[in-house]
Amino acid sequence: MIGELGAEVRQPPVAQLDPGAGAEDAAPAGATPALGGFAIELFAIAWDQSLQAHVPRDALSRVYSYDMVGSFIAVPLGEVAVGPLAHTSGTVPVLLGCAAIIVVVTAAAACSRSVWRIRAT
To answer: How many CB atoms neighbour CB 49 within 10 A?
Structure first.
């Protein structure tokens, strides 16, 4: 649960990618990706621990494979979709929309009963 909520920190770096930001925004914009990277690693540790603790050993490699395939497919699809969308709608609205999507999806995952029922083993 801590990892999922920590992943919520990913959205400030996305929101601060505004190309019109001035030099006064450089320090916060430089710090938030580091914080986002820390949050991603916290999530990755919790995710790997959860998989290893709750997935049977004989199915673990298959589950990891599906997880990686899903990730490797989702990233390029997102990149393909966001380029034309930013061209037609503008960069700032698309960046803010992406940040909002991250917040909503992370909050939805954190509210899932199955996430709350996971117990340390």
So the answer is: 14
Q: What is the pTM of this model?
A: 0.59
Work out how many domains the chain is built from and give that number: 1
Low-confidence ranges of the chain (pLDDT < 50): 1-2
CA distances from 102 to 49, 76, 82, 114 (A): 22, 17, 14, 20
Residues 50-80: pLDDT tens digits?
888 889 999 999 999 998 898 889 888 988 9
> Would residue 121 count as lying in a domain?
no
Q: Are 118 and 51 in contact (CB under 8 A)?
A: no
Q: d(Cα 27, Cα 3) in Å, to the nearest integer?
A: 25
